[in-house]
Amino acid sequence: MNGYGFNVKRWFQRGVVPPLAPGQPFDKTSPVVVLGGGPCGLTSAVMLARRGYSNISVIEKLPEPAPCDDAAHWNDYRDGQGDRFYNIGINGRGQKTLKKLGLMDLVDEYAFEVAGRIDWSPETPAESPKETIFTGKSYKTKCIQRDRLVSCLLRSIRTNSTLDAAISVQHGLDCVGVTWDSESSFGNESQEGDTNGVILELQPSS
User: How far apart are alpha carbons 6 and 25 in whole angstroms?
Assistant: First the structure.
């Protein structure tokens, strides 16, 4: 088990993040860590980078997914381990957010529109599931494999020089603990070799 230390400007005292003093700027070059490199984690990292944060680390315990354009991999309904792909739907607000962050174009290439849904339940015979057609919506829901969406977001980050410089994504690492440095106090500069703030305990995923 290794300690992964980050010196931060926003110090932690007993696990509580104190508020910034009025007029005190936040140093956007200070390290920021996002735990979880799924759709939400990567989108959050991009949002931070768009707001000027330039030292963002994303930690993800799962291995990196296949390239989003690997048709042989994604056209099968099962992944390499024999499990079904988990598909997710992106609603209007999700599409609007991805567009605003400049991430939707690549997702659009591999997502497909759905006009409704089919539900099976104990009260519904398997041969005649309940069908619901969406009407009255101003958008079409986009559906894509969850891991393929991750792959699209990773490619969008790596092919954008600004995002690629600001965001580092590490796969295959599991965060097994967080240590708060209770000796640090808000507003004190760290000394050389000091790890005031928060230390993440990371280990390779099993």
Answer: 19
Residue 60's beta-bridge partner residues?
A: 171
Element housing 23 (H / E): none
Give the whole-angstrom CA distance, residue 200 versus residue 68: 30
DSSP run (H or E) holding 7: strand 2-7
Work out the burial of residue 44: count CB atoms within 10 Å of its CB; fewer than 13 is exposed, 13-18 middle, 19 or more buried. middle
pLDDT digits (tens, 9 = 90+) for 47-77: 999 999 999 999 999 999 999 999 888 886 6
Lowest mean pLDDT among 14-18, 120-124, 201-205: 14-18
Contacts of 107 (CB under 8 A, 6+ apart): 90, 98, 142, 144, 149, 152, 153
pTM of the predicted model, to two decimals?
Answer: 0.76
Amino acid identity of 86? Y
- DSSP, residue by residue, 112-161: EEE-EEEE--TTS-TTS-EEEE--S-SS-EEEEEHHHHHHHHHHHHHTSH
Confidence at 191, pLDDT banded by 50, 70, 90: very low
Lowest mean pLDDT among 10-24, 49-63, 121-135: 10-24
